[in-house]
């Protein structure tokens, strides 16, 4: 589950906001960012780098992180969904557990399938990418009561 969750967070990573507090920052190109300006790091480019994630870095692979046994909440230099260093999201452990609980409930209560055989393309809005919900069908599972116990049936 952690491998699939981490891969989902890698593929659908957004941007990391950062406010510049030093007087200014100068890039190697000579461009300067003044103090107080908001800067956004586009994590998607790092997470889709073939040098970091292999030749198929742009493809979703639920088993990509299985061998490393690295949980989705772990801070790594090439996995920046929750930030890095002392500024890493302190709520990442809670967030990952909440996602797992929500996924558990979805799988327990619904039969989930997609329409057709084609790939569902994400929705891209500026630097952000979101999963597309069109073409996905959620069918509520039937509840069967037997001997006083409820049982969800697919």
Automatic annotation (TrEMBL):
Record has Metal-binding as a keyword: yes
Cited InterPro entries: Cyt_P450 (IPR001128), Cyt_P450_CS (IPR017972), Cyt_P450_sf (IPR036396)
Cofactor: heme
GO molecular function: heme binding; iron ion binding; monooxygenase activity; oxidoreductase activity, acting on paired donors, with incorporation or reduction of molecular oxygen
Assigned keywords, A-Z: Heme, Iron, Metal-binding, Monooxygenase, Oxidoreductase
Gene3D superfamilies: Cytochrome P450
PANTHER family: CYTOCHROME P450 (PTHR46206)
Family from the record: Belongs to the cytochrome P450 family.
Identification of the protein by name: 12336_t:CDS:1
Source organism (scientific name): Funneliformis mosseae
């Amino acid at each position: 589950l952690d491998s699939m969750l981490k891969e989902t967070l890698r593929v659908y990573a957004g941007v990391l906001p950062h406010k510049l507090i030093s007087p200014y920052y100068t890039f190697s190109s000579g461009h300067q960012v003044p103090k107080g300006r908001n800067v956004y790091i586009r994590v998607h480019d790092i997470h889709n780098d073939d040098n970091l994630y292999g030749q198929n870095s742009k493809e979703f692979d639920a088993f990509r992180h299985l061998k490393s046994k690295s949980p989705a909440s772990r801070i790594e230099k090439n996995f920046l969904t929750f930030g890095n260093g002392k500024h890493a999201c302190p709520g990442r452990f809670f967030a990952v557990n909440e996602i797992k609980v929500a996924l558990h409930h979805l799988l327990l209560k619904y039969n989930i399938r997609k329409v057709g055989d084609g790939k569902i393309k994400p929705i891209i809005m500026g630097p952000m990418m979101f999963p597309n919900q069109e073409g996905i069908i959620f069918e509520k599972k039937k509840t069967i009561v037997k001997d006083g116990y409820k049982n969800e049936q697919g």
